[in-house]
Amino acid sequence: MKTLINDSIEDLEIALKNNTDLQEKFKLNPVEALKNVEIRNPKDTDYWIYRIIVIMLGLAVLGIITGLILITMNNLRFDTQLITIFTAISSGAIGALAGLLAPSPNKQ
């Protein structure tokens, strides 16, 4: 059975203090004992991180596109560099969304 820890040395220390079986395995063969320790990555277990990022990037893209449409519909006089900057920000956010939502290769 694998021992689950977060990604820090302090968590490994706590797991060693609380698990006598793990202590015995470390005394006999530390390398083999470390192979039975599984590190939990917050990116793998906490899906709210991705949800919040995707929502914020989506809102940024929609807000900028809506703003650019309103600017052109109302014939407001804005500096063309400002419109170019907004376009660059929205295209960067679209690229970030594509990178986050693209399927990642399987871990082996």
Structural descriptors:
108 residues; 71% helix; rod-shaped; membrane; transmembrane; transmembrane helix
User: How many extended strands?
Assistant: 2
Walk across the major sheet and give the strand order: 1-2
SS summary, helix count: 6
**In percent, how helical is the residue content?**
over 70%
List the helices and strands in order. Answer: EHHHEHHH
Domain tally: 2
Low-confidence stretches: none
Mean pLDDT: 80
Which term fits the overall shape? rod-shaped
Question: How is this structure best described in words?
Answer:
- This protein is rod-shaped.
- The protein has a two-stranded parallel ribbon with strand order 1-2.
- The chain has helices spanning 9-18, 20-28, 30-35, 42-45, 48-73, 80-101; strands at residues 3-5, 37-39.
- It folds into 2 domains: 3-43, no CATH class; 47-101.
- The longest helix has 26 residues, at 48-73.
- Helix 5 (48-73) runs antiparallel to helix 6 (80-101).
- With 108 residues, it is mostly helical.
- The chain crosses the membrane at residues 48-70, 82-102.
- Keywords: Membrane, Transmembrane, Transmembrane helix.
